[in-house]
Amino acid sequence: MQRREGGSEVYLPDDVSLIRSQNVYNDGFKRDGLAYIDDRHAKELQNVIVEDGDVLLNITGDSVARVCQAPNDVLPARVNQHVAIIRPRKDVLDSRYLRYFLVNSIMQQHMLALAAVGATRNALTKGMIEAFEVPTPPLSEQRAIAHILGTLDNKIELAKEMREAQRCGEDLGLSDDELAFYDALEVNDSAVKVLGDDALRTIARELVESVRRNVTIDWTLRESARAKLRTLVKRILRKYGYPPDKQEKATQTVLEQAELIAKDWAE
Q1: DSSP letter string over 81-110?
Q2: Where residue 12 falls among pLDDT bands split at 50, 70, 90?
């Protein structure tokens, strides 16, 4: 259900996602601006229920022809009038393969040309979509193609995240190791943000220094060594006023990060 408080929307856990054109991009689903509707309104949109793996296509306006797949974690969901749901027959067409076909440059140009014909506003009609000619190799081949393209997408996304992390570390004046511990502090949590970047940077640097001084080659195998590090981490968090209810999770995450990067430190 949905209620208003102070003029703003407050959404409860049983709300249904309403996917709009601003959520649909060729490089994937964007959660920014994702809207929600209550059960009553969702029942009024029973003809536009989104299922896992559905292909979503923007059919009007400046974003016409943008396409992606609906991620499972936004379900249950509906779409508004600017987004079409394409649900291929599973025994004929793989939905991931279809999404990659629709996003390729030639098909994008074709859809944009269709949308621009005979209307004051760009639009793709149901008839246009049903007339798309999609190559249909055997399903095994479709899935193999989709897997290869998905792997490339993942590598591109990973490279993008690494570049963003590097820029973030440079902006904050942190080394790679310090940035790893900085991220472990849940810096996007509102209760943590109040500490400010200066305090969080100081915590990250002190954590790196303290952990580096106390790791040994076999520290992950010795409970006494792990217990000592856990105590040191908690002491540093308390020292700088880190939220008490967040300390246990942050400590565990810091130790997990230490296991990943401290092999190069141990002597």
Answers
A1: TTEEEE---TTT--HHHHHHHHHSHHHHHH
A2: very low
